[in-house]
Amino acid sequence: MTVTTKTEASAERAADSWDGELRILRELFRPGNRLQMAVIALLAAVSAAATLALPLVVAELVQQVQQGQGLTRAALLMIGTGLGSALAGALAAFLLSRLGEQLVRRLRITTMRRGLAMRLSDAKAVGSGDLATRLTADAMQLKGAINIGPIQLPMAAITLLGTIVIMGVLDWVLLLITLAGFVCALAFVAVVIRGLRRTYQNMQDDIGTLTHQFITALDALVVIKAYRAEERVGRTLDGHARRLEKLGVDAARMESLVVPVINLGQQIALLTVLLGGGARLVSGDLALPDFVAFLLYLLQLTAPLIMAASGAAQIQAGLTSRQRFNDVFALPVEDLAPAAAEPARTAGGRNTPGPAPAVRFEDVTFGYGDEPVLRGVDFEVPAQGLTAVVGLSGAGKSTALALIERFMEPQSGRVHLFGEEAARLPLNELRGRIAFVDQAFTLLGDTVRANLSLGLAAVPTDEELYAALAAVGLDTSVRALPDGLDTVLGGAHDLSGGQRQRVALARAVLAEGSLVLLDEPSSQLDSVNEQRLRQIVDTLAEDRAVLVVAHRLSTVRHAAKVVVMDRGRVIAEGTHDELLDSSPAYSELVSAQLLSGAAAPAARSTKEVTA
Ligand SMILES: Nc1ncnc2c1ncn2[C@@H]1O[C@H](COP(=O)(O)OP(=O)(O)OP(=O)(O)O)[C@@H](O)[C@H]1O
Ligand SMILES: [Mg+2]
Questions:
Q1: Which residues contact residue 170 at a Cβ distance below 8 angstroms, ignoring those fewer than 6 apart?
Q2: Can you name the residues that pair with 572 across neighbouring β-strands?
Q3: In terms of CB atoms within 10 Å, which end of the chain has fewer, N or C?
Q4: CA of 493 relative to ligand 2 center, distance in Å
Q5: Range of 82's domain?
């Protein structure tokens, strides 16, 4: 598995810092955005220049007052400069924010698409909650950094530099006094910002974990309530929230020091400049308008400094989030490109009888971890007819079905589908030929209609949908739902477990798969519906391959072929009757009623039962 651990990821992130900064800039300056970025930069430059010019305009105003001249021109100039600076700044901020939203939208869409396309095992390893945090907390954090990073931060730096240069021109002695006041403050701020980066990384990772844990708990709410585990599960969640609080307080402690330290630096500088400047004013080395302008620049110095310091902190946080997006993008995705040519298939997924079996396992070994779960499995599913797989819980039956769907790849050996090696078939084509009902009969939190038409090229008509529902005995129940076929499942209105299982079955009936995989399709069915299931399976098996993982003897007994699995191996194959004679393990399954619905003596043979 290629999922990196958190420590590895953190180490990579540290090394990746500059790369991340450059990447965000590249994304913002992509060809389509260049003109906009140029306009934004120009507006921001105008705003910064106007801010820089303002004290000089004030100095001119003081001079004109001193000389007893009219104030109108200077006053108008001052208002114009202030207004221009504010307007240009606001427009630049808006345009940049809009670009930021576009960039975040692209990242969100890519994350969702990749989340859907990634391998099942990776999606499980990352965790749905942690993945979802990319779309919320990480996206917001990144957006915050974009609002500041590319324009405001450089502009703050330019304003800062410009201010210092002008101050130097006005009076370099006073400038040296000023800088001495600030030096210690700046050294401190730099150390704080470095420390913040790690804290932000831990915070984002922990937000992801907390979200995931909470979502998982909500998914298990029935069990939590039934076992009165609210307090216990709540305590675990509280622990995560507390850890986050601690990290947040750590960050706040560091952040809260930045502004006072800069302000302190400014006050020290102000005091020394007032003393030094006063002396130079008296000695005649400095004119009053210049002194006023210098003081104004000194007061103006803190704003860009604070901006630069807090901006640098926010950018650290944004880069951490950008890297978290990259961690997801680095995971491999399944190749679901449409097949070059549509598979040769007749309408309704029917298979013409041919020599190639629908499925052939050839010495397949697979494990989720180090321990193999399937060990050298060999079996065949004929192109037509019903094949049943039986075996104790944990034998590897569902795993075998998952390998047919290529949710995972075998570690050794080969799976063949319709005579071709599954690994060579385009995934899109392979899954297009299979109708699958998973053991948990998963339905989408969407309408009955959407659930039934999943994977179909054309949405079936209401008549077709109701016909499929009638086959599983569900048409009346669905008609009784408040919005019929358009009722959203899993919300305020829902179906019972057995009804949900039958919706999943109806979906498989509608899907035009030439291979139908059913993982314990009768686990929730009553005897009437089990009878219906048999009819459905028989009809499907007339012209296609149906592979059923079965716990019920009623399904197994009339299968054309039964595959018996035990602890990851196929231990016997044959018909029910053949296996009763030849396989002690199978006989034991039947007689111990491990295949339920079996009254041991009656199950001796099909002939006996039907006689
Ligand atoms: N996602 C998973 N990660 C790790 N191990 C798994 C996973 N799914 C199944 N296993 C393990 O693989 C083995 C086979 O599981 P599988 O689900 O294939 O059994 P099964 O025959 O379908 O059982 P059941 O009849 O209970 O559904 C089990 O020992 C199980 O612990
Ligand atoms: Mg199973």
A1: 290, 293, 294, 297
A2: 564
A3: C
A4: 28
A5: 6-329
500 contacts: CB under 8 Å, gap ≥ 6? 441, 443, 489, 494, 524
Give the model confidence (pLDDT) of 270-326 as tens digits: 888 888 888 888 887 778 888 888 888 888 888 888 888 778 778 888 888 888 888
Tokens of 139: 């996206």
- Does residue 461 share a domain with residue 319? no
Ion ligand 2: residue ranges with CB closer than 5 A: 398, 439
The verdict on the CB of residue 523 being under 6 Å from ligand 1 is: no
Residues 322 and 468 in one domain: no
Residue minimizing CA distance to atom 6 of ligand 1 = 368
Neighbours of 157 (CB within 10 A): 16
- 82 is a domain residue: yes
With a 6 Å cutoff on the Cβ, whether 506 touches ligand 1 is no
Q: Report the separation in Å between the CA atom of 546 and the middle of ligand 2, taken as the mean of its atom positions.
A: 16
Q: By alpha-carbon position, which residue is closest to atom 4 of ligand 1?
A: 368
CATH of residue 251: 1.20.1560.10
Tally the domains of the chain.
Answer: 2
Give the separation between CA 533 and CA 526, rounded to whole angstroms.
10
Domain assignment present for 374: no
- Residue-wise pLDDT tens digits, 211-257: 889 988 988 888 888 888 889 999 999 999 999 999 999 888 888 88
Q: Is 564 in the pocket of ligand 1 (CB under 6 A)?
A: no
Residue with CA at minimum distance from ligand 1 atom 19: 394
At which of 467, 491, 512 does a domain end?
A: 512
User: Using a 6 Å cutoff on CB, does residue 396 contact ligand 1?
Assistant: yes
Q: Are residues 226 and 101 in the same domain?
A: yes
| Residue nearest atom 1 in ligand 1 by C-alpha distance | 368
Ligand 1 centre from 569 Cα, in Å? 13
**What one-character DSSP code corresponds to residue 338?**
P
- Taking the centre of ligand 2 as the mean of its atom positions, its distance from the CA of residue 146, in whole angstroms, is 48
Ligand 1 nearest-atom number relative to CA 391: 21
Last residue of a domain, one of 452, 482, 512: 512
- pLDDT of 406 strictly over 90: yes
Q: Is residue 198 part of a domain?
A: yes
Residue nearest to atom 5 of ligand 1 (CA): 368
Structure confidence by residue, pLDDT tens digits, 351-398: 555 568 999 999 999 999 889 999 999 999 999 999 999 988 899 999
Q: Which CATH number fits the domain that encloses residue 501?
A: 3.40.50.300
pLDDT 10s digits, 63-85:
877 787 777 777 787 788 888 88
Q: How far away, in angstroms, is 403 Cα from ligand 2 center?
A: 13
CA separation for the pair 152, 324 (Å, rounded) = 24
Q: Which residue has the least CA distance to atom 13 on ligand 1?
A: 394
Ramachandran assignment for 65, one of left (phi > 0), alpha (psi -120 to 50 degrees), beta (any other): alpha
Pairing state of beta strands 385-391 and 545-549? parallel
